[in-house]
From TrEMBL:
Residues 5-245 form the ABC transporter domain. Belongs to the ABC transporter superfamily. PROSITE patterns: ABC_TRANSPORTER_1, ABC_TRANSPORTER_2. It comes from Edaphobacter paludis. InterPro entries: AAA+_ATPase (IPR003593), ABC_transporter-like_ATP-bd (IPR003439), ABC_transporter-like_CS (IPR017871), Metal_Ion_Import_ABC (IPR050153), P-loop_NTPase (IPR027417). Keywords: ATP-binding, Nucleotide-binding, Transport. The keyword ATP-binding applies. SMART domains: AAA. It holds the Pfam family ABC_tran. One of its GO terms (molecular function) is ATP binding. This is ATP-binding cassette domain-containing protein. It comes from the Bacteria. Gene3D superfamilies: P-loop containing nucleotide triphosphate hydrolases.
């Protein structure tokens, strides 16, 4: 199976500002990796580069390869990339049921528009995913009436329904209370143990589940560390990354910082 992602000498500007500087990154399909950094370090721009919402500056040495391919039809690529962020993918989703919201993942759409054809196989797959993410009770519930934690669970199902190879999670625990954060992390642990790859972008140390074994540190648009979690997830490295004194503790495989 080809690597999920290969970035070589990638520089990305947004407007007049250079946001990412000479990014070199390789992520294997099925790998569990967390990208950690302070606000404004370029994490979201990196996700947008992976999903082809942002494009690198064209240079001879620059290369972007996703699932072994450098050129994609964006509609096809969106079906292969399971992206989960803190925001719902479009307001129309608020008025659809949990099952229908998951089904939109087949079409990379915000809702099931009348021109979209949902097959029996798609509905069967959606129900399988809803069971996988422990959301059978949300099948007929409108997304707009769900809690933030339930919506995040449905968004993960939407990301998984087309392809369960890789999940891209952009600050997934934002706006969740303590109980919903715990449920989210337990779900991500279950998916990781079942073989789903995870690329997690966060600035919350507690989001880094035990199954994540590789850490990438990002600051001011540059990778300043890439290696095993046990080597990089330390108080001195975090203090340098966030430029403040950080204390770190560990319990049951989870790390907590203050």
């Amino acid at each position: 199976m080809p690597p999920f992602l290969e970035l070589t000498h990638v520089n990305v500007a947004r407007g007049d500002n250079m946001v990412l500087h000479d990014i070199n990154l390789s992520v294997n399909t099925g790998e569990h990796i967390a990208i950690l950094g302070p606000n404004g370090c370029g994490k979201s721009t990196l996700i947008k580069t992976i999903t082809c919402e942002c494009y690198p500056i064209v240079q001879p040495e620059t290369r972007v390869s996703i699932f072994g391919r450098e050129r994609w039809d964006l509609t096809e690529l969106k079906k292969r990339l399971g992206v989960v962020s803190a925001e719902l993918p479009g307001k129309p989703t608020l008025h659809t049921t949990g099952r229908d919201a998951v089904l939109t993942g087949f079409f990379s759409s915000s809702t099931l528009w009348p021109n979209l054809t949902v097959t029996a196989a798609m509905r069967e797959r959606a129900d399988e995913v809803l069971e996988q993410i422990d959301a059978i009770n949300l099948i007929d519930k409108p997304v707009g009436e769900m809690s933030a934690g339930q919506q995040r669970r449905i968004m993960i199902g939407r990301a998984l329904v087309g392809s369960s190879q890789m999940l891209l999670l952009d600050e997934p625990s934002n706006a969740l209370d303590i109980s919903a954060q715990r449920e989210l992390r337990n779900l991500l642990r279950k998916l990781a143990q079942q073989g789903t790859g995870i690329l997690l972008i966060t600035h919350h140390i507690a989001d880094i589940i035990p199954e994540i074994d590789r850490l990438l540190l990002l600051r001011e648009g540059r990778i300043i560390g890439d290696g095993p979690k046990e080597e990089l997830l330390t108080a001195p490295r975090l203090s340098d990354l966030f430029r403040t004194e950080v204390q770190l503790t560990q319990r049951d495989g989870f790390h907590h910082a203050w």
